[in-house]
Write a structure and sequence with these properties.
Elements: H1 7-34, H2 39-47, H3 66-79, H4 81-93, H5 95-101, H6 104-115, E1 121-124, E2 140-144, E3 147-158, E4 165-171, E5 181-187, E6 194-199, E7 210-221, E8 225-226, H7 232-268, E9 270-271, E10 274-275, H8 280-308, H9 314-339, H10 350-359, H11 367-379
Parallel strand pairs: 1-4
Antiparallel strand pairs: 2-3, 3-7, 4-5, 5-8, 6-7, 9-10
Helix pairs in contact: 1-3, 3-4, 3-7, 3-8, 4-7, 7-8, 7-9, 7-10, 8-9, 9-10, 9-11
The protein binds acetoacetyl-coenzyme A (CAA).
Acetoacetyl-coenzyme A is lined by residues 85, 89, 123, 125-126, 132, 134-135, 156, 158, 178, 233-234, 237-238, 240-241, 314, 363-365, 369, 372-373.
Length: 381
């Protein structure tokens, strides 16, 4: 890669690229077709330490940081976006807030098992009636002695059926609006009343698991509250600042794949007696992709660096996610266009990139939500 990385990050990038090229990429079309990821890949990601990049050494990780995770995510998503999103949830959305807000007991109990891949994690905020307006969630948590009873429904939950540990957001006091939301660490084992519904049939990232969850009197010990009661919404949004950098990295990875495949095809495909790469109309498309890729990578790493440095980065995370996701969709459209009829068929991976790219403009905050976040930040006095 053309960005200046430290030796440590460069080696990590090389390792991620090797795994992506040798293991993930050859299996990506099948994962898309069969709507499941090979279990073996989970084990490989864990072995490489990719689930522990935000987890301190004493809890089984390497704590290399969000820049390291972003670099890995760019490589993984270049090969397989379905694997990319599962890694993003496991590597960031759960360990991130656990490291920051967890009690020593919670960290000791969960972090090593997250890093090793022993437990799969899921982030359960969205509900059927509350997606963008996450502060209005209706799942309730009612205190009964030393436990809470959780009731409600969650929707579009990545890893939701496989998860052994779920970060569930529920309201402990509806009269307080979003200030009544609390975050809970819910273990699946022993949790009666927690069930996964239908697995969504998706346009893209089809290898990843997306389900609805029903919670009926799910008992959660009070010691499994993450952070303070009533602080769950802030915890959710602060976590999404990190998650959005991950989705921006996912988009940059898809974009890189679009450019790479388009360059190859444009050099090989001949029309009018010469490779189409010699046609200016095609060159302009390739140049636009290259510019977008360079910008997206820089925005991702800048936001990651700010987050690692403990500096404000809400705006930068949203800018990175907004730009990279829209750029990935532009690139995917042009990659299909460059491939022509061939790009419209499943014989070439660009057809999959086109479908996979779309979700990056939707999850972890739609492009419209990112614009709201950015506007609020720049309008702040
Ligand atoms: N970090 C920390 N605190 C934050 C914050 C942040 N980034 N953003 C806001 N807050 C705080 C505010 O300061 C405020 O606190 P006070 O009340 O003490 O002042 C509180 O949180 C509420 O903030 P807002 O009033 O700005 O919140 P809002 O209700 O107006 O909503 C929103 C803002 C931007 C629309 C927000 O709801 C949002 O981002 N919605 C999108 C939801 C989303 O991204 N969902 C993704 C689901 S997970 C997923 O997609 C995972 C997956 O599939 C892989």
């Amino acid at each position: 890669m053309d960005l200046e990385l430290t030796e440590e990050l460069r080696l990590l990038q090389e390792a991620a690229r090797e795994l992506a090229e040798d293991v993930l990429k050859p299996a990506a079309a099948r994962a898309d077709r069969e709507e499941r990821l090979p279990a073996e890949h989970w084990r490989r990601l864990a072995e490489m330490g990719f689930f522990g990049l935000l987890i301190p050494e004493e809890h089984g990780g390497t704590a290399l940081g969000n820049d390291a995770l972003s670099i890995v995510l760019m490589e993984v998503n270049r090969a397989c976006a379905s694997t990319g999103v599962t890694l993003s949830v496991q590597g960031s959305l759960i360990p991130g807030p656990l490291v920051k807000h967890g009690t020593e007991e919670q960290k000791r109990r969960y972090l090593p098992r997250i890093a090793s891949g022993e437990i799969v994690c899921a982030y359960a905020l969205t509900e059927p009636e509350h997606g963008s307006d996450a502060g209005a969630i209706e799942t309730t948590a009612t205190r009964k002695g030393d436990r809470y009873l959780l009731n409600g429904r969650k929707a579009w939950i990545t890893n939701g059926a496989s998860a052994g540990l779920l970060l569930v957001f529920a309201t402990t006091d509806r009269s307080l609006g979003s200030k009544g939301i609390t975050a809970f660490l819910v273990e699946r084992s022993g949790s009666k009343g927690l069930s996964a519904g239908k697995r969504e049939k998706k346009l893209g990232i089809r290898g990843s698991e997306t389900v609805e969850l029903a919670l009926e009197d799910v008992e959660v010990p009070a010691e499994n509250v993450l952070g303070q009661p009533g602080q769950g919404y802030k915890l959710a949004l602060e976590t999404l600042d990190g998650g959005r950098i991950g989705i921006a990295a996912q988009a940059a990875g898809i974009l890189a794949a679009c450019l790479e495949d388009s360059l190859r095809y444009a050099r090989e495909r001949k029309q009018f007696g010469k490779p189409i790469a010699e046609l200016q109309a095609i060159q302009w498309k390739l140049s636009n992709m290259a510019v977008d890729l360079e910008a997206a990578r820089h925005l991702v790493l800048r936001a990651a660096w700010l987050r690692d440095a403990g500096r404000p980065h809400t705006k930068e995370a949203s800018i990175a996610k907004l730009f990279a996701s829209e750029a990935a969709n532009r690139a995917a459209t042009q990659a299909v266009q460059i491939h022509g009829g061939a790009g419209y068929c499943k014989d070439f991976p660009v057809e999959r990139y086109y479908r996979d790219a779309k979700i990056t403009e939707i999850y972890e905050g739609t492009s419209e939500i990112q614009r709201i976040v950015i506007a609020r930040q720049i309008l702040e006095p």
